[in-house]
Design goal:
By secondary structure, the protein is an alpha/beta fold. It is built from 10 helices and 10 strands. It has a 5-stranded parallel β-sheet with strand order 3-2-1-4-5, with helices on both faces. Strands 6, 7, 8, 9 and 10 form a 5-stranded mixed β-sheet that branches. The structure holds xanthosine-5'-monophosphate.
Length: 326
Protein backbone atom coordinates (compact mmCIF):
# COMPACT_ATOMS: atom_id res chain seq x y z
CA UNK A 1 0.00 0.00 0.00
CA UNK A 2 1.60 3.27 -1.10
CA UNK A 3 1.96 6.01 1.46
CA UNK A 4 -0.38 8.81 0.48
CA UNK A 5 0.11 11.31 3.31
CA UNK A 6 2.39 14.28 2.80
CA UNK A 7 5.18 14.14 5.44
CA UNK A 8 4.57 16.77 8.14
CA UNK A 9 8.20 17.83 7.97
CA UNK A 10 8.01 18.64 4.25
CA UNK A 11 8.60 22.35 3.70
CA UNK A 12 6.38 24.23 1.23
CA UNK A 13 8.41 24.54 -2.00
CA UNK A 14 8.30 28.27 -2.60
CA UNK A 15 11.82 29.24 -3.65
CA UNK A 16 14.27 28.17 -6.38
CA UNK A 17 16.56 26.70 -3.68
CA UNK A 18 13.80 24.49 -2.28
CA UNK A 19 12.81 23.47 -5.82
CA UNK A 20 16.40 22.48 -6.61
CA UNK A 21 16.60 20.40 -3.42
CA UNK A 22 13.30 18.67 -4.31
CA UNK A 23 14.53 17.98 -7.85
CA UNK A 24 17.83 16.49 -6.64
CA UNK A 25 16.01 14.27 -4.14
CA UNK A 26 13.48 13.12 -6.75
CA UNK A 27 16.16 12.33 -9.34
CA UNK A 28 17.79 9.95 -6.84
CA UNK A 29 14.45 8.41 -5.90
CA UNK A 30 13.38 7.96 -9.54
CA UNK A 31 16.68 6.34 -10.49
CA UNK A 32 16.44 4.02 -7.48
CA UNK A 33 12.85 3.04 -8.33
CA UNK A 34 13.23 2.62 -12.09
CA UNK A 35 16.81 1.30 -12.35
CA UNK A 36 17.48 0.36 -15.97
CA UNK A 37 13.80 -0.38 -16.75
CA UNK A 38 11.44 1.47 -19.07
CA UNK A 39 8.72 3.92 -18.10
CA UNK A 40 5.69 5.26 -19.99
CA UNK A 41 3.93 8.63 -19.56
CA UNK A 42 0.77 10.10 -21.07
CA UNK A 43 1.96 13.65 -21.75
CA UNK A 44 -0.92 16.07 -22.26
CA UNK A 45 1.19 19.22 -22.18
CA UNK A 46 -0.58 20.39 -19.01
CA UNK A 47 1.52 21.58 -16.07
CA UNK A 48 1.59 18.34 -14.08
CA UNK A 49 2.40 15.83 -16.80
CA UNK A 50 4.95 18.25 -18.30
CA UNK A 51 6.79 18.56 -14.98
CA UNK A 52 6.77 14.76 -14.54
CA UNK A 53 8.19 14.41 -18.07
CA UNK A 54 10.95 16.95 -17.42
CA UNK A 55 11.94 15.20 -14.17
CA UNK A 56 11.99 11.77 -15.78
CA UNK A 57 13.97 12.96 -18.80
CA UNK A 58 16.63 14.24 -16.38
CA UNK A 59 16.49 11.05 -14.27
CA UNK A 60 16.35 8.27 -16.85
CA UNK A 61 16.55 9.92 -20.30
CA UNK A 62 15.59 7.56 -23.09
CA UNK A 63 14.19 4.94 -20.72
CA UNK A 64 11.13 7.21 -20.71
CA UNK A 65 8.62 7.13 -23.54
CA UNK A 66 6.10 9.97 -23.60
CA UNK A 67 2.84 9.50 -25.50
CA UNK A 68 1.09 12.69 -26.58
CA UNK A 69 -2.43 12.04 -27.83
CA UNK A 70 -3.90 14.81 -29.96
CA UNK A 71 -7.65 14.29 -29.60
CA UNK A 72 -8.46 17.35 -31.66
CA UNK A 73 -9.77 19.25 -28.63
CA UNK A 74 -6.50 20.96 -27.66
CA UNK A 75 -5.90 24.69 -27.87
CA UNK A 76 -4.23 26.24 -30.89
CA UNK A 77 -0.49 25.54 -30.92
CA UNK A 78 -0.49 23.03 -28.04
CA UNK A 79 0.53 19.82 -29.83
CA UNK A 80 3.25 21.76 -31.68
CA UNK A 81 4.57 23.12 -28.38
CA UNK A 82 4.69 19.66 -26.79
CA UNK A 83 6.71 18.34 -29.73
CA UNK A 84 9.02 21.36 -29.77
CA UNK A 85 9.74 21.40 -26.02
CA UNK A 86 10.02 17.68 -25.35
CA UNK A 87 11.25 16.13 -28.60
CA UNK A 88 13.29 18.96 -30.09
CA UNK A 89 14.62 20.75 -27.01
CA UNK A 90 14.74 18.02 -24.34
CA UNK A 91 15.50 15.17 -26.74
CA UNK A 92 12.82 12.92 -25.23
CA UNK A 93 11.40 9.76 -26.76
CA UNK A 94 8.02 11.19 -27.77
CA UNK A 95 5.29 9.30 -29.58
CA UNK A 96 2.88 11.77 -31.13
CA UNK A 97 -0.51 10.23 -31.90
CA UNK A 98 -2.78 12.09 -34.29
CA UNK A 99 -6.15 10.73 -33.13
CA UNK A 100 -8.18 13.76 -34.24
CA UNK A 101 -10.39 11.90 -36.74
CA UNK A 102 -10.98 9.02 -34.33
CA UNK A 103 -12.24 11.29 -31.56
CA UNK A 104 -14.29 13.58 -33.76
CA UNK A 105 -15.91 10.65 -35.57
CA UNK A 106 -16.90 9.07 -32.22
CA UNK A 107 -18.28 12.40 -30.99
CA UNK A 108 -20.26 13.20 -34.13
CA UNK A 109 -23.93 13.79 -33.31
CA UNK A 110 -23.44 13.43 -29.52
CA UNK A 111 -24.92 16.46 -27.76
CA UNK A 112 -25.25 15.39 -24.11
CA UNK A 113 -22.33 16.84 -22.05
CA UNK A 114 -21.66 13.82 -19.80
CA UNK A 115 -21.89 11.47 -22.77
CA UNK A 116 -19.31 13.60 -24.60
CA UNK A 117 -16.99 13.42 -21.56
CA UNK A 118 -17.42 9.62 -21.35
CA UNK A 119 -16.58 9.14 -25.01
CA UNK A 120 -13.49 11.35 -24.77
CA UNK A 121 -12.26 9.54 -21.61
CA UNK A 122 -12.89 6.04 -22.96
CA UNK A 123 -11.33 6.76 -26.34
CA UNK A 124 -8.27 8.23 -24.64
CA UNK A 125 -7.70 4.99 -22.71
CA UNK A 126 -8.13 2.98 -25.90
CA UNK A 127 -5.61 5.05 -27.87
CA UNK A 128 -3.12 4.96 -24.99
CA UNK A 129 -3.56 1.21 -24.61
CA UNK A 130 -2.82 0.67 -28.31
CA UNK A 131 0.36 2.71 -28.06
CA UNK A 132 1.44 0.91 -24.86
CA UNK A 133 1.03 -2.47 -26.61
CA UNK A 134 3.34 -1.39 -29.42
CA UNK A 135 6.17 -0.83 -26.93
CA UNK A 136 8.23 -3.67 -25.49
CA UNK A 137 9.39 -4.12 -21.93
CA UNK A 138 7.59 -1.25 -20.20
CA UNK A 139 7.43 -1.84 -16.43
CA UNK A 140 6.46 1.56 -15.05
CA UNK A 141 3.67 4.05 -15.68
CA UNK A 142 4.35 7.68 -14.66
CA UNK A 143 1.47 9.98 -13.72
CA UNK A 144 1.11 13.65 -12.87
CA UNK A 145 -0.89 12.99 -9.72
CA UNK A 146 -0.63 15.94 -7.30
CA UNK A 147 -1.60 16.19 -3.63
CA UNK A 148 -5.06 17.76 -4.14
CA UNK A 149 -5.95 14.77 -6.36
CA UNK A 150 -5.22 12.46 -3.42
CA UNK A 151 -6.98 14.68 -0.87
CA UNK A 152 -10.08 15.33 -2.95
CA UNK A 153 -10.84 12.06 -4.54
CA UNK A 154 -9.07 9.18 -2.82
CA UNK A 155 -8.11 7.56 -6.08
CA UNK A 156 -6.60 10.09 -8.49
CA UNK A 157 -8.74 12.18 -10.85
CA UNK A 158 -9.57 10.74 -14.21
CA UNK A 159 -7.49 13.25 -16.13
CA UNK A 160 -4.42 12.37 -14.09
CA UNK A 161 -4.40 8.70 -14.65
CA UNK A 162 -4.89 6.09 -17.25
CA UNK A 163 -6.66 3.83 -14.78
CA UNK A 164 -8.97 1.61 -16.75
CA UNK A 165 -6.14 -0.03 -18.65
CA UNK A 166 -6.72 -3.78 -18.94
CA UNK A 167 -5.28 -6.27 -16.38
CA UNK A 168 -2.25 -7.22 -18.47
CA UNK A 169 -1.20 -3.58 -18.70
CA UNK A 170 -1.06 -2.84 -14.99
CA UNK A 171 2.32 -1.18 -14.56
CA UNK A 172 3.98 -0.08 -11.34
CA UNK A 173 3.17 3.61 -10.76
CA UNK A 174 5.70 6.44 -10.68
CA UNK A 175 4.21 9.60 -9.12
CA UNK A 176 6.96 12.07 -8.22
CA UNK A 177 4.57 15.01 -7.62
CA UNK A 178 2.06 13.24 -5.43
CA UNK A 179 2.83 15.33 -2.32
CA UNK A 180 2.98 18.67 -4.09
CA UNK A 181 0.40 21.43 -4.33
CA UNK A 182 -0.11 23.18 -7.66
CA UNK A 183 1.94 26.26 -6.75
CA UNK A 184 4.86 24.00 -5.80
CA UNK A 185 4.60 22.08 -9.08
CA UNK A 186 4.91 25.41 -10.90
CA UNK A 187 8.05 26.43 -8.96
CA UNK A 188 9.61 23.03 -9.72
CA UNK A 189 8.61 23.24 -13.41
CA UNK A 190 10.14 26.69 -13.73
CA UNK A 191 13.37 25.44 -12.13
CA UNK A 192 13.44 22.50 -14.57
CA UNK A 193 13.52 25.03 -17.42
CA UNK A 194 10.00 24.55 -18.80
CA UNK A 195 8.58 27.58 -20.66
CA UNK A 196 6.52 30.02 -18.56
CA UNK A 197 3.44 29.64 -20.74
CA UNK A 198 3.48 25.93 -19.92
CA UNK A 199 4.24 26.28 -16.20
CA UNK A 200 1.91 29.18 -15.36
CA UNK A 201 -0.98 28.31 -17.67
CA UNK A 202 -4.60 28.54 -16.59
CA UNK A 203 -6.53 25.34 -15.78
CA UNK A 204 -7.73 23.46 -18.84
CA UNK A 205 -10.34 20.69 -18.59
CA UNK A 206 -9.46 17.14 -19.66
CA UNK A 207 -12.20 17.12 -22.36
CA UNK A 208 -10.63 20.34 -23.63
CA UNK A 209 -12.39 22.49 -26.17
CA UNK A 210 -14.99 19.72 -26.48
CA UNK A 211 -17.05 21.18 -23.62
CA UNK A 212 -16.81 24.69 -25.14
CA UNK A 213 -18.21 23.62 -28.50
CA UNK A 214 -21.67 23.35 -26.98
CA UNK A 215 -23.86 20.40 -27.98
CA UNK A 216 -22.87 18.09 -30.84
CA UNK A 217 -19.33 18.98 -31.96
CA UNK A 218 -18.79 19.83 -35.61
CA UNK A 219 -15.36 20.44 -37.09
CA UNK A 220 -16.14 23.94 -38.36
CA UNK A 221 -17.62 25.13 -35.05
CA UNK A 222 -14.72 23.52 -33.14
CA UNK A 223 -12.31 25.58 -35.29
CA UNK A 224 -14.32 28.70 -34.36
CA UNK A 225 -13.79 27.82 -30.66
CA UNK A 226 -10.06 27.21 -31.19
CA UNK A 227 -9.43 30.37 -33.23
CA UNK A 228 -11.46 32.68 -30.97
CA UNK A 229 -9.73 31.19 -27.88
CA UNK A 230 -6.33 31.91 -29.46
CA UNK A 231 -7.31 35.56 -30.09
CA UNK A 232 -8.63 35.97 -26.54
CA UNK A 233 -5.44 34.50 -25.05
CA UNK A 234 -3.25 36.66 -27.25
CA UNK A 235 -5.11 39.83 -26.29
CA UNK A 236 -5.20 38.98 -22.57
CA UNK A 237 -1.42 38.37 -22.68
CA UNK A 238 -0.77 41.66 -24.51
CA UNK A 239 -2.92 43.58 -22.04
CA UNK A 240 -1.46 42.23 -18.79
CA UNK A 241 -4.38 39.93 -17.91
CA UNK A 242 -2.52 36.63 -18.39
CA UNK A 243 -1.60 35.29 -14.95
CA UNK A 244 -4.02 37.80 -13.36
CA UNK A 245 -7.34 36.28 -14.43
CA UNK A 246 -7.81 32.73 -13.14
CA UNK A 247 -9.50 31.25 -16.20
CA UNK A 248 -10.61 32.77 -19.51
CA UNK A 249 -11.82 31.17 -22.70
CA UNK A 250 -14.44 31.27 -25.42
CA UNK A 251 -17.53 29.19 -26.04
CA UNK A 252 -19.42 28.71 -29.29
CA UNK A 253 -23.07 27.67 -28.82
CA UNK A 254 -24.88 25.71 -31.50
CA UNK A 255 -27.26 28.39 -32.71
CA UNK A 256 -26.99 31.14 -35.28
CA UNK A 257 -28.21 34.71 -35.65
CA UNK A 258 -28.33 37.19 -38.50
CA UNK A 259 -25.66 39.78 -39.19
CA UNK A 260 -24.06 41.85 -41.95
CA UNK A 261 -20.56 41.60 -43.39
CA UNK A 262 -19.29 43.59 -46.39
CA UNK A 263 -22.86 44.67 -47.14
CA UNK A 264 -24.13 41.10 -47.25
CA UNK A 265 -26.45 39.29 -44.86
CA UNK A 266 -24.81 36.61 -42.73
CA UNK A 267 -26.28 33.83 -40.63
CA UNK A 268 -23.52 32.75 -38.25
CA UNK A 269 -22.61 31.68 -34.69
CA UNK A 270 -21.95 33.95 -31.70
CA UNK A 271 -18.77 33.61 -29.64
CA UNK A 272 -19.17 33.93 -25.86
CA UNK A 273 -16.26 35.22 -23.78
CA UNK A 274 -15.90 33.93 -20.21
CA UNK A 275 -13.31 35.34 -17.77
CA UNK A 276 -13.53 34.38 -14.09
CA UNK A 277 -11.64 34.49 -10.83
CA UNK A 278 -11.87 31.96 -8.03
CA UNK A 279 -9.86 30.37 -5.23
CA UNK A 280 -11.10 26.84 -5.53
CA UNK A 281 -13.46 26.72 -8.57
CA UNK A 282 -16.42 26.10 -6.22
CA UNK A 283 -17.58 29.71 -6.54
CA UNK A 284 -16.33 32.28 -9.04
CA UNK A 285 -16.66 35.98 -9.83
CA UNK A 286 -16.50 37.60 -13.25
CA UNK A 287 -13.38 39.61 -14.18
CA UNK A 288 -14.09 43.29 -14.87
CA UNK A 289 -12.49 43.29 -18.33
CA UNK A 290 -12.01 46.85 -19.68
CA UNK A 291 -14.79 47.67 -22.14
CA UNK A 292 -12.38 49.03 -24.77
CA UNK A 293 -10.48 45.73 -24.71
CA UNK A 294 -13.72 43.76 -25.10
CA UNK A 295 -14.60 45.93 -28.10
CA UNK A 296 -11.17 45.37 -29.63
CA UNK A 297 -11.43 41.58 -29.12
CA UNK A 298 -14.94 41.64 -30.61
CA UNK A 299 -13.59 43.37 -33.71
CA UNK A 300 -10.83 40.80 -34.12
CA UNK A 301 -13.04 37.76 -33.56
CA UNK A 302 -15.81 38.90 -35.92
CA UNK A 303 -13.33 39.74 -38.67
CA UNK A 304 -10.84 36.86 -38.21
CA UNK A 305 -12.91 33.85 -37.17
CA UNK A 306 -14.82 32.05 -39.89
CA UNK A 307 -18.54 31.55 -39.28
CA UNK A 308 -18.87 34.08 -36.44
CA UNK A 309 -20.80 37.37 -36.57
CA UNK A 310 -21.36 38.30 -32.90
CA UNK A 311 -19.45 38.35 -29.60
CA UNK A 312 -21.11 38.18 -26.17
CA UNK A 313 -19.59 38.56 -22.69
CA UNK A 314 -20.81 36.19 -19.97
CA UNK A 315 -21.62 38.28 -16.85
CA UNK A 316 -22.70 35.31 -14.73
CA UNK A 317 -20.90 34.44 -11.48
CA UNK A 318 -20.77 30.86 -10.13
CA UNK A 319 -23.37 30.24 -8.86
CA UNK A 320 -25.65 30.51 -10.79
CA UNK A 321 -23.57 29.56 -13.80
CA UNK A 322 -20.81 26.96 -13.75
CA UNK A 323 -17.45 28.10 -15.09
CA UNK A 324 -17.70 25.91 -18.20
CA UNK A 325 -20.90 25.89 -20.24
CA UNK A 326 -21.23 22.09 -20.15
P1 LIG B 1 -17.28 24.15 -13.56
O1 LIG B 1 -17.69 24.28 -14.98
O2 LIG B 1 -17.83 22.90 -12.90
O3 LIG B 1 -15.70 23.99 -13.56
O4 LIG B 1 -17.61 25.37 -12.73
C1 LIG B 1 -14.86 24.07 -12.44
C2 LIG B 1 -13.42 23.86 -12.92
O5 LIG B 1 -13.26 22.51 -13.37
C3 LIG B 1 -12.87 22.48 -14.74
N1 LIG B 1 -13.59 21.38 -15.39
C4 LIG B 1 -13.04 20.19 -15.72
N2 LIG B 1 -11.77 19.73 -15.58
N3 LIG B 1 -12.43 17.69 -16.58
C5 LIG B 1 -11.47 18.49 -16.04
O6 LIG B 1 -10.32 18.07 -15.95
C6 LIG B 1 -13.72 18.08 -16.75
O7 LIG B 1 -14.56 17.33 -17.27
C7 LIG B 1 -14.03 19.39 -16.29
N4 LIG B 1 -15.18 20.13 -16.27
C8 LIG B 1 -14.88 21.32 -15.72
C9 LIG B 1 -13.25 23.85 -15.30
O8 LIG B 1 -12.45 24.21 -16.43
C10 LIG B 1 -13.03 24.74 -14.10
O9 LIG B 1 -11.67 25.08 -13.98
Amino acid sequence: MANNVRPETMERISTPELARAFIAEQLDALRAQIGDKKVLLALSGGVDSSVVAALLIKAVGKQLTCVHVNHGLLRKGEPEQVIRVFRDEMDANLVYVDAVDRFLDKLAGVAEPEQKRKIIGAEFIRVFEEEARKLDGIEFLAQGTIYPDILESGPVKAHHNVGGLPEDLQFELVEPLKFLYKDEVRVVGHELGLPDNMVYRQPFPGPGLGVRCVGAITRDRLEAVRESDAILREEFAKNGLEGKVWQYFTIVPDFKSTGIKDGLRTYDWPVVIRAVNTRDAVTATVEDVPFALLQHITGRITSEVKGVNRVLFDLTPKPSGTIEWE
